[in-house]
Design goal:
InterPro entries: BPSS1780-like (IPR047798). The chain is mainly α. 72% of the residues lie in helices and 0% in strands. It is built from 10 helices and no strands. The two termini are 26 Å apart.
Length: 269
């Protein structure tokens, strides 16, 4: 079993966020580069016909490990190599890709479960969103029939999947765990640390939704155009928030699944 994490409260999530922001400030340009490269590469892979979504799912864990390896390197050096982004491809690539494919299949299973409640409406909406709609760009007709119940079912069914996969890539890449063991440890660790993770989620929502909305409404009340509002609020906020969130996630990993006493954490290759 994983070592028991320290007692966690909602405030623990706020501490993780602050630690993540401190790490971001050490080299904001490099962290933004890593995150943008992560998004860009997955976006390009997703353009591959037919199998694009599956390839994105398979490669996402390895790229995530690379971004977090770069974040961790900032704890010991101010200018780590940008090539750390690809450290997840240098070892343990097969189990990392296996994690991604399994997550993809389980997500499809969750969406399939909702078909029992809405006849597949939510599944059709997600398919159109992911694969792209053909024809006109009007609102999909399925949205008119989308009910609240399948959304709640999907959310409740996906929570344990999300908890199991949250830290699994890092456990596979940095501790050499097998896929099954990594999923189990991640699920147990996330369950034990739920107050801290909830606190982190609330902090992200506060800055990403509440603060952003207030700033946008203030600027619009002053007569600023939508384009300028996006340039002044959305883009800068995402440039800070996205790297900070990933960095905060790394901080949570260190507390939720601490390394066994006396063992030194594995370093990314």
């Amino acid at each position: 079993m994983p070592d028991s994490p320290k007692h966690m409260t909602l405030a623990t999530g706020w501490q993780w966020f602050k630690t993540g922001f401190v790490r971001y400030r050490r080299n904001p340009v490099l962290m933004v580069f890593w995150v943008m490269s992560y998004w860009t590469m997955l976006g390009l892979v997703g353009l591959v016909p037919v199998v694009g979504d599956l390839l994105v799912a398979a490669l996402a864990p390895a790229l995530l490990v690379g971004v977090l390896a770069g974040c961790r390197a900032l704890d010991t050096e101010s200018m780590p190599s940008f090539t750390l982004l690809f450290s997840g491809f240098r070892s343990r690539l097969q189990p990392l890709m296996g994690l991604g494919v399994l997550h993809f299949l389980l997500t499809l299973g969750v969406l399939g479960l909702t078909a029992l409640f809405d006849g597949g409406v939510l599944l059709q909406v997600m398919a159109r969103t992911t694969l792209g709609a053909t024809g006109d760009a009007s609102t999909p007709p399925e949205l008119d029939n989308l009910a609240l119940t399948p959304l709640i079912v999907a959310m409740l069914a996906y929570v344990p999947v999300m908890m199991a996969f949250a830290y699994a890539p890092l456990l596979v890449a940095w501790r050499g765990f097998g896929v099954g063991k990594a999923l189990f440890f991640s699920l147990v660790g996330s369950w034990r640390a739920w107050p801290g993770l909830l606190g982190l989620l609330l902090t992200i929502l506060f800055f990403g939704v509440v603060v952003a909305s207030l700033l946008m409404m203030l600027l619009m009340a002053l007569g600023v155009s939508d384009t300028v509002v996006t340039s002044l609020v959305v883009v800068p906020l995402m440039a800070v928030l996205a790297p900070t969130v990933l960095s905060a996630f790394l901080s949570s990993y260190s507390d939720v699944l601490p390394d066994p006493e006396g063992a030194s954490p594995a370093q990314p290759l």
